[in-house]
Design brief:
Elements (H helix, E strand, L loop, with lengths): L10 H15 L8 E2 H4 L1 E4 L5 E4 L4 E5 L16 E10 L5 E4 L4 E2 L1 E6 L10 E5 L4 E5 L11 E4 L2
Antiparallel strand pairs: 1-7, 2-3, 2-11, 3-4, 4-5, 5-6, 5-8, 8-9, 9-10, 10-11
């Protein structure tokens, strides 16, 4: 059935399809693995969002209900929780691991919030200088909010 609608002029378009898909996907920033020491500290977003990471894998945050993060039901008030790098688990799947010493993606777990509220991960991009908010495992910056380390 597919072959019955085939026309010779379509060969060129089909040949370009892999190139076009590769080009469309190349807009996502590359992630980079960093150690815990590069995460620890204070990070701020463009609209006053704040996250402060501690070496004991806890964090405090404020103003996470700004713009794109509001759609994820993130809290505006000061809140806290735990963080961990994503790592390969024993079953071959990826999940957060408090034991992982480094990673390119950080999972946040908020204390006192229902699990379905504020599904927020942070992808490490720009050589480790930016944490990009995402709720999509295939798009490191799906929420468009970039956190920079405070100087």
């Amino acid at each position: 059935m597919f072959m019955s609608s085939w026309k010779p002029g379509r060969k060129f378009g089909l040949a370009l399809m892999p190139f076009l898909l590769l080009t469309a996907c190349s807009g996502s920033p590359e992630t980079i693995r960093i150690p815990v020491s590069r995460v620890v500290g204070n990070w701020t977003g463009p609209d006053g969002e704040e996250i402060s990471f501690a070496v004991d894998r806890t964090f405090e945050s404020a103003n996470l209900a700004a713009n794109e993060l509001a759609a994820e039901d993130c809290p505006a008030k000061r809140t806290s929780g735990g963080w961990a790098f994503y790592a390969k688990q024993g079953d071959g799947m990826y999940g957060t691991s408090k034991e992982a010493a480094s990673g390119d993606r950080i999972g946040l777990s908020f204390t006192g919030l229902p699990e379905e509220d504020c599904f927020l991960d942070l992808a490490v991009i720009d050589g480790g200088n930016t944490l990009c908010a995402t709720s999509d495992p295939d798009d490191p910056c799906s929420l468009g909010v970039r956190f920079s380390r405070e100087k």
